[in-house]
Write a structure and sequence with these properties.
Length: about 150
């Protein structure tokens, strides 16, 4: 089984009466968002040089698109942080559903960071603000460590 016996959409079905399960979608929106945002990142992952056009009365055949490329890259990295926050949220939910407690200091710190911003999802709730704050925390952590986000 691809889900390795995890409940559909990481919704804690054992805590939800069977007659109400159809009302709860768990982290389905997280899965869909990851797919949509990743597609957007991929669609923008082409070199900006293909947009080059003549300028300066045809004196120059290339226009520097460096700033445009840098801005686009910055936006893609922001989106990558959101995808990472969404994926980590799903991972934390799966760990909690399994009752797995992490032992490593680094993995435990990441788990604690996730749970500082995103609670265990027992019933469907809006997570947009939680994901946004987790994403911003990941960016801050990345910047503090000199990483790429």
């Amino acid at each position: 089984r691809p889900s390795n016996r995890l409940p559909p959409n990481l919704s804690p079905w054992n805590q939800i009466p069977e007659r109400e399960r159809h009302l709860h979608h768990g982290l389905k929106a997280c899965h869909q968002s990851i797919s949509a945002i990743t597609s957007e990142i991929l669609s923008k992952a082409m070199p900006n040089s293909i947009f080059s056009r003549s300028s300066e009365s045809h004196n120059q055949d290339k226009v520097s698109l460096g700033m445009s490329a840098a801005m686009q890259c910055h936006h893609q990295l922001q989106q990558l942080a959101t995808v990472t926050a969404l994926a980590l949220t799903c991972l934390a939910q799966a760990l909690d559903l399994r009752g797995i407690r992490l032992k490593g200091s680094a993995s435990s710190a990441v788990y604690d960071l996730i749970r500082t911003h995103v609670p265990f999802v027992e019933r469907d709730i809006a997570l947009d603000t939680n994901i946004t704050t987790l994403s911003k925390s990941l960016i801050q952590l990345s910047n503090a460590k000199g990483a790429f986000l």
